[in-house]
Specification:
Chain lengths: 605, 91
């Protein structure tokens, strides 16, 4: 199982790290110059163009363990591990970053583009990282970039959500750091290679935990539907593509065949659709569907056969395209109307027909309708699971497929675009670049659905899965068609309500509060006890000490000092009285003293 | 030009929305056709034992969609839903 994950080594011929282009343009954008917006915005398309060129050229070459390295602090950082697993992710990252920057082309705020550049650079860095240290650096760069994309929505809710997001990712990053350091201590290497499930040690599980945070594995997932709906409109499009899919990549690289992932992946697939079915906010529904769809990938990786790992990679490729398109559609709704809540939308099909059309292409793609990319990629994973005799897991994924079409394929567009005959809400015109980006994404969803060979060529393993057999097409049509009938029958029940649904983030907040309590209460208690002790014992002791000092001062110091003064005065007075000023007195005194000394001398002798 | 084109498509869709009942009947007919087709096209061996039976995936899709909606909206949702400012009130 896992040994198959290791790529066959062939000589790669070309490598240019795409992150360099993104970081360079990001740096140019933060420099203080006064170019007109209509000029500098064209720079945004340069890094994606370079990345696409670079990755396409790499995809024609072979594999290489290290195409770019740096010696730092006695370690060799490997920035350029190139193989098919890295290339398929880099390929779709490059395309999606182009779509993302076209979608964000109208945004004049440079900071948003800089954040996106950092974020995408982090994603590419993780994909080509050959060792855990390099991975960690780019992993954290992604956290910073994505947090900025949330904060740049610039409202109090986004600020709070961004802070929670950052806290959670730092928490996940610390697990990764602890795991990689302990692993280094045990194995004396930072090399990032496949880990055998049979001999995995505690440090491997720490690393796995760090990866699972970013992959939004239940119960570590709630940061995602908390933060993504609060991100900026264009930022959410980037975020939907990179964080979780980078995590899928590192799981496929390191943890294929881990049983826990197989089970948790299916739990994710079901959990996500369940919440999406009852959610009201369009972008939160889509966020839950990231959890659900990443579940398919995590399950495929956990099952760990060549077919299911291929399925996970193909699904990641397809998912980045259609999920980006879904977020672009929901972003258009938010941009045009100022809200993404289904209770406030509806009846918009007349005003936003092309948004509806593009959204529907993505919706049927994610649902796995024949002719669209999800049909190919999802079924590779499900069939792979069934062929590996993981029947229950495959069944769970089929149930999740029904839930997907129900919630994101029908419910969301029905209540956003249809459901009412018209909507008095004011609709702002949508910039042409947003339509262009959606058009490209919609075309690619269709293209990779109709020509899966294009996708197959990028997969890490050989695959002979034929999606377009009469039975597979009929099966998918039956499944989705009757799900549609189910919606039709339940359309009065499934009406969204303006409510907040508790998820694991409620527990996170409880844990957060408990931590705050632990930190603040014992310290407060110690402080108050100390004050009391000081008041009752310390103060009295101090008063006593003061009193004793005063007594000592009066009885001791004063007695000695005053006594010495009195004696001096007495002696002085006596001496003064003896100073008569008459010579005969002094002579008499001198003779008396002389006689006394003589007498004493004579007597003592 | 683009505006006019947008309106054409939008108008057509809005018009289609008014005739939704007709589309619903077309959909029912299509679903019946799919089930009929299932008697002719079926897998030689299924993954889940019962899925070789004609109409299995129709029943599965309908059953899961209705069951999921009822359980989630009628049982789970009332249990876990709170007012929208639930988390903000604590602050």
């Amino acid at each position: 199982m896992t040994e198959a994950i290791e790529p066959v080594a062939q000589a790669a011929t070309f490598f240019f790290h795409p992150s360099i282009a993104y970081l360079a343009v990001g740096l140019i954008l933060v420099l203080p110059w006064k170019w007109e917006w209509r000029h500098w915005r064209w720079l945004l398309l340069v890094p994606p163009a370079i990345a696409i060129y670079s990755v396409v050229r790499m995809s024609f070459g072979g594999n290489a363990e290290c195409m770019a390295s740096l010696h730092y602090l006695g370690q060799t950082l490997n920035f350029g591990r190139v193989d098919k697993l890295a290339i398929i992710f880099a390929h779709v990252f490059a395309i999606q970053s182009l779509i993302g920057f076209i979608y964000a082309f109208h945004v004049r705020e440079r900071a948003q583009h800089v954040a996106a550049m950092l974020y995408v650079a982090g994603g590419f860095g993780c994909v080509f990282a050959g060792d855990f240290l390099t991975l960690f650096v780019f992993w954290e760069l992604m956290s910073v970039g994505s947090t900025l994309l949330i904060w740049l929505r610039r409202n109090p809710k986004a600020t709070a959500a961004g802070f929670r997001y950052f806290m959670f990712h730092i928490f996940g990053g610390l697990f990764l750091l602890a795991g990689l350091l302990l692993r280094y201590k045990a194995l004396n290497t930072f090399a990032f290679t496949a880990i055998d499930p049979a001999s995995a040690q505690y440090y491997d599980y720490l690393i796995l935990l760090g990866f699972c945070v970013n992959a939004a594995v239940i119960p570590l997932h709630a940061w995602l539907p908390d933060a993504y709906p609060e991100a900026s409109i264009t930022g959410a499009v980037f975020m939907s593509a990179f964080t979780t899919k980078t995590a899928v990549y590192v799981l496929a690289r390191g943890f294929a065949g881990f049983e826990i992932l197989a089970v948790m992946g299916v739990v994710m697939a079901l959990w996500g659709v369940a919440y999406a079915t009852i959610e009201n906010n369009a972008r939160r529904i889509l966020s839950y569907h990231i959890v659900s769809q990443v579940g398919y990938m995590v399950a495929g990786i956990g099952i760990g056969t060549a077919m299911t790992v291929d399925g996970a990679c193909a699904h990641a490729y397809a998912h980045i395209l259609y999920k980006g398109l879904l977020f672009m559609g929901a972003g258009c709704l938010l941009y045009a109307t100022g809200t993404a809540k289904l209770t406030e939308l509806g009846g918009l099909v007349k005003k936003l027909p092309w948004v509806m059309l593009c959204y529907m292409v993505a919706a049927v793609s994610i649902s796995g309708l024949p002719l669209f990319n999800g049909f190919v990629s999802k079924n590779i994973t499900i069939n792979g699971a069934a062929e590996a005799h993981r029947t229950w897991l495959a069944l769970g994924m089929e149930i999740a497929a029904v839930g997907t079409f129900l919630s994101v394929g029908i419910k969301l567009p029905y209540f956003a675009f249809w459901s009412k005959s018209s909507n008095p809400i004011e609709v702002k015109p949508i910039p042409a670049n947003m339509y262009v980006a959606m058009g490209i994404a919609a075309f690619l969803c269709f293209f990779t659905g109709v020509y899966p060979e294009y996708l197959y060529r990028l997969l890490p393993f050989e695959i002979d899965y034929a999606p377009y057999t009469p039975w597979k097409v009929l099966q998918a049509s039956l499944l989705l068609g009757f799900t549609g009938l189910g919606f039709y029958l339940c359309r009065k029940v499934i009406v969204p309500k303006a409510k907040l649904n508790l998820d694991f983030d409620y527990l996170y907040r409880l844990v957060g509060r408990a931590f705050l309590w632990l930190v603040s209460r014992p310290v407060a208690i110690i402080d108050s006890v100390w004050s009391e002790v000081y008041k009752t014992v310390g103060l009295r002791l101090l008063l006593f000490m003061g009193l004793a000092t005063s007594v000592f001062d009066v009885k001791g110091i004063d007695t000695v000092v005053d006594g010495a003064a009195y004696s001096t005065k007495f002696v002085g007075d006596g001496a003064a009285r003896g100073q008569t000023g008459r010579l005969q007195d002094y002579l008499a005194a001198a003779i008396l003293i002389g006689l006394a000394i003589f007498a004493a001398f004579w007597f003592l002798k | 030009m683009e505006e006019k084109c947008c309106n054409c498509f939008g108008e057509w869709l809005a018009h289609a929305q008014e005739r939704s009942q007709g589309y619903a009947w077309a959909m029912f007919a299509f679903l019946a056709f799919l089930v009929a087709l299932n008697f002719l096209i079926y897998p030689e061996e299924g993954h889940f034992v019962l899925d070789v039976l004609p109409g299995f995936w129709a029943v599965f899709g309908l059953g899961v969609a209705v069951g999921m909606t009822l359980v989630l909206k009628k049982i789970i949702f009332p249990l876990i839903s709170r007012s929208e400012d639930f988390y903000d009130r604590g602050n």
